[in-house]
Amino acid sequence: MWSYKFDEIDSEEDKERIIVNTINYGQWFHLQWIVRHYGKEVLKNIITNLPASEFRPSALWLTSLLLGIKKMKYASRGDKIKATRDF
User: What total number of domains does the chain contain?
Assistant: First the structure.
């Protein structure tokens, strides 16, 4: 997470960002940490509900294989942004 101030990151508040960055750029021991820290079911839920475009294809493929994710609930990046905006 080189682009963030690590001491300002909260593992619960920022878990989507942590999970995405770890999957995309982490090493094997980083992936093991997120599995231990969040649990497989939480990871599966977050991964399947994020836009697939958030992940590098090869990283998403490997993570899906390791976690047993059969199908993504694909949502576009625009839909996610619209859903999270405060009006």
Answer: 1
Residue 7 lies in a domain: no
DSSP 54: G
Decide: pTM greater than 0.85.
Answer: no
Whether residue 36 lies inside any domain: the answer is yes
Range of the domain at 68: 15-84
Q: Are 5 and 29 in contact (CB under 8 A)?
A: no
| Domain assignment of residue 23, yes or no | yes
What are the two backbone dihedrals, phi and then psi, of residue 86, each rounded to the nearest 5 degrees? -95, 125
- pLDDT tens-digit profile, the chain (87 residues): 556 666 777 788 889 999 999 999 999 999 999 999 999 999 999 998 888 889 998 998 899 899 998 877 665 666 666 666 655
Phi-psi region of 5 (alpha: psi -120 to 50; beta: other; left: phi over 0): beta
